[in-house]
Recover the amino acids of this structure.
């Protein structure tokens, strides 16, 4: 009989957000206190009022929390004025973000915290919103007309929050025939095309240099996990452990194959290249490796309580040597997860955790990405993060930042009030 994971085998549990509307007596006064911390980030008192009203609208019971409904719900509200504030008014966004992260650190900061990188899509009609294109939208699981944001989430034993964001601008937006749209959308002229992993790399580097939020782990989906640039950025930081998803086609060896240098002539010069000594020593895909592992080596772990009962997976791990361009490179942990049943579905993760790391730690890390999924779910369903109708580059960032701060404000209330919550364990899909 395979062992079942006990809760105390996790490094720490992640609490579930469970603050109810009836738990806060003077919500508006609390919100005003939060907003007072950002008064010096706006040049005019009108902007400060707009900022408060816009966030208050996100907490309201409005069915759609875009600018017009929010403005019309305010006494003497002005739709155009609120639109100008979100899309065109100057915000000291860098200063706001730095302050915001310091508040996140006050409530959620932990030396064992984790930075999580993931993307979220926003369905859009038309073609004039900044960065909109036919592209994969994770929200609906297929290609559609949408914008895509790359986000950084933070999770610790105290809770979770979004702490940074970048709007992905598809490469075609930098073509000459998009120049008019770029100007209308106020895309900064010095903006250049960056892939999603490059945007994640940029955020990770900034967070590391800023050194406000402590963290030990870096988690990410396969688009980032298989990016040499992103992995190199993590490895350049001392004492950071990455745990990232990879595709089933990633290739590796269980034992490091022997290599040798071979000289050859090219362009009249002698050059060398590294080749395998045994040309038949081909690397395996991680999928092929997983399907050939005997049942004896798989450990059953209960990872959460679902609506239909316990959610259970089986896990195994191996030390593997990754293959790049057919040659052996770094040695990492490979964690494999599979569903139960006759036709199991596999998921794969790699990590630079030390060789002494136990299976339970890797299993625990595989579940932490749930936190950023919860951030997306809660900010979209409760705060209208996907209700916006702004088209300009500054407007998208202002709206998303406001949503991030509103979400954290709720966590602050929960922590300030000392409200205990049920522990929520989950494995990212």
């Amino acid at each position: 009989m395979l062992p079942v994971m006990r809760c105390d085998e996790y490094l720490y549990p992640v609490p579930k957000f469970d603050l109810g509307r009836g738990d806060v007596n003077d919500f508006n006064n609390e919100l005003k206190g939060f907003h007072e911390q950002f008064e010096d980030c706006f040049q005019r008192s009108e902007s400060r009022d707009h900022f408060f009203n816009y966030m208050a609208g996100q907490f309201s019971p409005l069915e759609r929390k875009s600018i017009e409904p929010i403005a019309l719900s305010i006494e003497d509200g002005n739709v155009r004025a609120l639109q100008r504030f979100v899309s065109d008014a100057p915000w000291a966004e860098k200063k706001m973000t730095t302050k915001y992260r310091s508040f996140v650190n006050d409530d959620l900061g932990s030396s064992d915290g984790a930075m999580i990188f993931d993307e979220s899509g926003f369905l859009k009609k038309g073609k004039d919103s900044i960065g909109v294109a036919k592209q994969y939208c994770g929200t609906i699981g297929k290609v559609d007309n949408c914008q895509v944001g790359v986000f950084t989430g933070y999770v610790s034993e105290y809770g979770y929050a979004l702490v940074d964001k970048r709007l992905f601008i598809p490469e075609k937006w930098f073509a000459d025939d998009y120049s008019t749209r770029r100007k209308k959308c106020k895309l900064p002229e010095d903006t250049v095309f960056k892939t999603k992993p490059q945007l994640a790399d940029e955020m990770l580097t900034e967070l590391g240099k800023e050194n406000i939020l402590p963290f030990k782990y870096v988690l990410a989906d396969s688009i980032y996990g298989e990016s040499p640039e992103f992995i190199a950025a993590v490895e350049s930081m001392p004492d950071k452990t990455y745990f990232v998803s990879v595709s089933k086609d990633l290739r590796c060896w269980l034992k490091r194959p022997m290599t040798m240098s071979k000289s050859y002539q090219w362009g009249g010069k002698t050059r060398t290249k590294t080749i395998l000594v045994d040309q038949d020593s081909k690397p395996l895909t991680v999928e092929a490796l997983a399907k050939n592992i005997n049942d004896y080596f798989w450990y059953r772990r209960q990872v959460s309580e679902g609506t239909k009962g316990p959610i259970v997976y089986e896990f195994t791990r191996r030390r593997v040597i990754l293959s790049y361009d057919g040659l052996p490179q770094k040695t990492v942990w490979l964690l494999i997860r599979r569903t139960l049943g006759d036709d199991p579905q596999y998921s794969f993760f790699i990590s630079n955790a030390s060789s002494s790391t136990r299976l339970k730690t890797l299993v625990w890390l595989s579940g932490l990405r749930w936190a950023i999924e919860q951030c997306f779910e809660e900010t979209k369903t409760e705060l209208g993060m996907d209700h916006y109708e702004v088209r300009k580059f500054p407007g998208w960032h202002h709206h998303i930042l406001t949503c991030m701060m509103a979400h954290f404000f709720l966590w602050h209330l929960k922590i300030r009030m000392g409200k205990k919550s049920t522990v929520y364990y989950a494995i990212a899909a």
User: Anything to note?
Assistant: Residues 248-358 form one domain.
